[in-house]
Amino acid sequence: MSVLADPRAFRRTVAGLSLVVAPLLYVVAVVADPALRQGGDTVGVYGRYPEQVSVSASLLHWSWVLLLPGIVGMVHLIRGRGVVFGHIAGGLAFFGVVNFSGLMLGDFFYSYLERALPAAQGAALADQAITDPGARYAFQIPGFVGLVGLLLLGLALAYARRGPWWAPFAMLAGILTGPIFPFGTIAGGALYIAGAGVIGLRMLRMSDEEWSGEPVQPTPTGSPSGNLANTR
């Protein structure tokens, strides 16, 4: 049976790969961001390097999107211990993190406005849009709440003995320090890749029975009657 036709193998593989690929895209996106690389006064930088902004914002968008199947997979593995807590934390993580994906459109607005208007004027106009109360309360605040949910979900996974206790701390630290170029990007990127990757690799390496929570059926060694088969 192919992976696509096997629901257990397919969902386990997608969840595991998502946790491996998402942090890699995040690190590449941070490195590609011209404003983060420059630091200091970044007014006009997005307008000067629209191609780099497009690559960076697109990769960041997909890094958040690809994290979502991994979050669902983490929730799926929590059983027996901390289930209710895991469901609540997973919901916060899922519905919070997805908002960061929408915020990546703001980079395109900065890039276009800084080219269409004088750089300072275009950046100021983009600032006004991104600090609108709707953007703040519908995207920014829920996004950071989602990061808290991701930390709590990782702890619930560790409590259920399905992941190491340090992984969620590494993921959160990596996400928050990654934009501090270059040393934060190096250290934070390594932390994010290690924290998410160790959980993702465990998913990829586990059996379908372990993933689904089904007990492994022992292989019969005797005859149907319960007696050893006659080999003579």
If you had to describe this structure to a student in words, what would you say it looks like?
Residues 210-232 are annotated as: Disordered. Residues 219-232 have a biased composition (Polar residues). Keywords: Membrane, Transmembrane, Transmembrane helix. This is DUF4386 family protein. The chain crosses the membrane at residues 12-32, 53-78, 84-105, 137-160, 180-201. The protein is mostly helical and 232 residues long. It has a domain at 7-41 and 56-98 and 133-212. Helices cover 75% and strands 0% of the residues. It is built from eleven helices and no strands. The chain has helices spanning 7-32, 34-38, 45-48, 50-77, 83-103, 105-116, 119-130, 133-159, 166-177, 183-205, 208-212. α4 runs antiparallel to α5 (83-103). It is elongated and about 65 Å long.
Query: How does the helix and strand content classify structurally?
Result: mainly alpha
**In terms of per-residue confidence, which ranges show pLDDT below 50 for 5 or more consecutive residues?**
228-232
Main sheet properties: none
Distance between the termini: 37 Å
* Overall pLDDT: 90
Q: How large a portion of the residues is in β-strands, by DSSP E?
A: under 5%
* Helix share bin: over 70%
**Can you count the beta strands?**
0
Estimated radius of gyration:
23 Å
Shape: elongated
Summarize the helix and strand pattern as letters.
Answer: HHHHHHHHHHH
| Number of alpha- plus pi-helical segments | 11
Organism: Streptosporangium jomthongense
Biased composition (Polar residues): 219-232
Region (Disordered): 210-232
Keywords: Membrane, Transmembrane, Transmembrane helix
